[in-house]
Amino acid sequence: xxxxxxxxxxxxxxxxxxxxxxxxxxxxxxxxxxxxxxxxxxxxxxxxxxxxxxxxxxxxxxxxxxxxxxxxxxxxxxxxxxxxxxxx
Length: 88
Prior knowledge:
There is one protein chain. By secondary structure, the protein is α+β, with helices and mostly antiparallel strands. 25% of the residues lie in helices and 48% in strands. It has one helix at residues 66-87; strands at 3-11, 17-25, 29-39, 42-46, 49-52, 56-59. A hairpin with a 5-residue loop joins strand 1 (3-11) and strand 2. The longest helix is centred in the last third of the chain and has 22 residues, at 66-87. The N and C termini lie far apart (33 Å). The model has no long low-confidence stretch (mean pLDDT 91). Belongs to the SpoVG family.
């Protein structure tokens, strides 16, 4: 499965959430509301999630292994940097 499109829908300079992203796979399947978050060790992606119970969240969709997460994160960060640099 290949990432065929990454759209950075919203960028924020304030707070820890830096952007909201949609990713399309094989021009056939899209995942919305992936968040780019600024953490203590730099940026990371947070997959779309739903609140279950008191303060607990569960991912709705997520990569099964670390290699897939790394590949997805690389595509997302590359597009985020392009969009961010255009705005500056």
